Amino acid sequence: MEKKVRIYSTPTCPYCIRAKQFLKDNNVVFEDVDVSSDDQAAEEMIAKSGQMGVPVIAVDDEIIVGFDKERIVRALGI
Questions:
Q1: Which residue stretches of the chain are H helix?
Q2: What does pTM read for this prediction?
Q3: How far apart are CA 34 and CA 1, in angstroms?
Q4: Which of 10, 40, 57, 73 could form a disulfide with 64 if both were Cys (CB 3.0 to 4.6 A apart)?
Q5: Is residue 76 part of a domain?
């Protein structure tokens, strides 16, 4: 079963851009949530991660703060 991946990001964050490119390069389907234009999504991200910084990547129920390539690979099993 494919894992559900959401990335909470902003359009100007360089680590967000890198993380999304990494997911695309590995053919991972993900939902991109722009927290700069969606206050509800920003609150959801903070509630899940305890962080205000982006990116926050949710792989199923695992929360990864920042572009932590090793954790993303492990969480996705790629």
A1: 14-25, 39-49, 69-76
A2: 0.93
A3: 26
A4: 57
A5: no
Residue 43 neighbours by CB under 8 Å, 6+ apart = none
Give the C-alpha separation, 11 to 50, whole Å.
Answer: 21
**Which residue is it, tokens 């053919």?**
27
> How many structural domains comprise the chain?
1
Quick: pLDDT tens for 8-31. 999 999 999 999 999 999 999 999
Q: How far apart are CA 65 and CA 51, in angstroms?
A: 8
Q: Which residues pair with 22 in a beta bridge?
A: none
Integer-rounded Cα Rg, in Å, for the chain is 11
Rounded to whole angstroms, how far apart are CA atoms 13 and 62?
21
In a domain, 6, yes or no: no
SS3 62: strand
Report residue 13 as tokens.
């964050």
Q: How many CB atoms lie within 10 A of CB 72?
A: 22
